[in-house]
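Fold it.
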Amino acid sequence: MNDVLAAGLATRLTTLHVSSARPDAPVVTEPARRPAATRAVRARIASELRTVAGWVEPRPVGTCQPS
């Protein structure tokens, strides 16, 4: 009996989920693109962060020679 109820409930919930979109739903537009100056600043900051990451990131240890 539980299987029949679960199947019926699953079918109903799936149908509600799939048909939940409305044709009169508001359209979300894409945000305005950033100006070229902002992109240049972001690229410069990313370059500087990569340089700092190169200083902070650990280097591989060389092989140890027994004495």
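The radius of gyration is 29 Å.
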